[in-house]
Specification:
The chain is an alpha+beta fold. The protein folds into two domains: 1-18 and 126-281, no CATH class; 20-123, Zincin-like (2-Layer Sandwich). It has helices at 2-10, 22-25, 28-37, 39-45, 108-123, 125-128, 130-140, 161-171, 173-191, 200-213, 219-223, 226-229, 245-263, 266-279; strands at residues 63-66, 72-80, 89-92, 97-101. Strands 1-2-4-3 form a four-stranded mixed sheet. Helix 3 (28-37) crosses helix 5, helix 5 packs across helix 9 and helix 9 (173-191) runs parallel beside helix 14 (266-279). The protein is globular, with a radius of gyration of 19 Å. The relative contact order is 0.12.
Amino acid sequence: MIKLLDILEEILSESKIVKVPDPILNKLPSIYDYIKSNLEDISSKAPKDFDNPYIPSKFNKILKFKDLGGNDIEVSVGLYNNPKDPGAGRMDTRKDIMLINLAFFGDKEYFLELGEHELVHAMDPKVRDVQLLGREYAKKGAEPTGDRFVLSKSNPNQKSELQKNMEKYKKSPWEFDAFTAPLIKVLAKSYNKPEIEQSKKDFKKSIFRLFYSIRTKSVNDIVNDKDLLKTAWFFSPRPWEDKNWDAVYRDFKDSLDMIKIWSTRPSLYKRFLQRVASEIN
């Protein structure tokens, strides 16, 4: 354990998370509030097809910033409503529309994380170059869909089609970038909270103990470990209050599921740890 901590502290990170500009992220709460306040009316206008979303006039080109190549982009917010679609959101980089699936419209914290995820895609040259994405997707991409049942009686431990696709989806370079950005920013905000000020060293030890353990332990093993379970609060953007525990626990398990997937590919997991180290120092 100490050896891993020493290694992590010595990392000179060349791998950074993609940071959506704060002024853009600060617009997401008002977008959420407008959708929530007008949900019934908006839902009646939103089609099932995300290729032709409903874009309220006030959401047209509402987010103006630059991609990672320094090019100006103007992103609209489009709405569709399809409970059979596997995603709660999408990013159309051809038309620069951040797509929100109203069928999975949830609480504000979830929406803000989803919005940041999709806006990382908007900034990412791997996604903006349609031809490049097409070639790479054929090799590394997947949709988080498929049969969730294992059909093999001879090998009940075999992964289902859904599990295989989900792992490939979350390991793809563009999704890795989009998932690590909000996750690590939440950890960094937790690390910089005033109540952590006197125990930053303990914070780092507990977080990296978790990252060390998850390489060999299952997600269930982690959540059943009382000491490791205490780190759940660090993975949630919600106020650290007992009334929020159920939501915090769900946030934690979602994060663990992703981290567990990344830990099965050493090069990817190393990159994840480098990104954490670059933000928590």
